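Researcher: Next sequence.
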Amino acid sequence: MTHLRSKRLPGPEPGSRPGLGKALVTVAALVASLGLGAFAPAEAATDAVTEAGTDAATSGTAAPRWTDKAHGFASLDGGTTGGAGGKVVTVTTQADLERYAAAEEPYVIRVAGTIKAEPFGANVVVASDKTIIGVGTAGELVQGELNLKPGTHNVIIRNLTIRDSYVEGNWDCKDTDFDGIQMDTVHHVWIDHNRFSRICDGQLDVRKDSEYVTVSYNRFENNNKTIGIGWTTNVKTQITIDHNLFSGTKQRNPSADNCAYAHLYNNYLTAQADPGDPVWTYGNWSRGQTKMVIENSYYKDVQHPYQADTTAELVQRGSILKNTSGRHEAWGAAFEPRAFYKYELHPAAAVPALVKKFSGPQARIGT
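Model: Next structure:
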């Protein structure tokens, strides 16, 4: 797919926001359907809730309104379609995965079963115009990395488990750089419904001047470093991070350095690894010149749930905090996400049940 890079992002979509009464009714209905019990009006986001919709999560039967189309920043400036229009292939070996992922032409690559990368920590290079998708819940990449080189664009990675590149006893992994997914100065990438566990070093690194990225409905578990964004003096990256589970992770949940726009909503952070570290165990960090907006997320048993450098901006609205400590920092105006795209915002009270059930690989995706 050829992307024509626009000079400016599109303006806001027309439409009205529901009033307080309608918002509270929507919250109550969704919370009740999830079996979450009563809620206090103070726990509901009164000025940032859209209608959950008739197919929002109900008592274990209906899924949230996700589609096979990228949303958030990955949907802008031409959108992200991956290998759509290319051949569909099913792979079961590292050799075939590497062959099709690095090809010049578009491919939809279905990963069936577990692929164990050799040597340990091996990179699988992913070229432009690719969709890599696990078949049901069985698709796995073990002890390997998906690597997107500078200039790569239009990539979708969905429904995979990426795990076990951790080197026992090497908690910081500074000398290995075995990431789960690493991208460097890319554009238009959608990372959706994956599970990351025991990776050395970052589970998902969105590096340098990457643009138009969405990270949605993933499970980030059992790790030191989760999502690192930046390592650049330029302020270009636009990233949406929504409906993700962060459980048993220590830092970079995410850490966003010099992002033009970082929009985080409906994420669930809980059960941090190494909470005894008073500095480097934390949730969300707006760093450098980043403009970050956090909406309707849920923080439970989290140290430093959200923090910002004095040079950065952070707006937080509608989130729920249970047993949190340390830094809770918000200042500046940041930006208004609805000036760029529409999105469905679930009430914070519903987030734990919603995210635990519907994040990570799903049986009905990729089949």
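Model: Confidence is low (pLDDT under 50) at residues 1-29, 31-61. The chain is about 10% helix and 35% strand.
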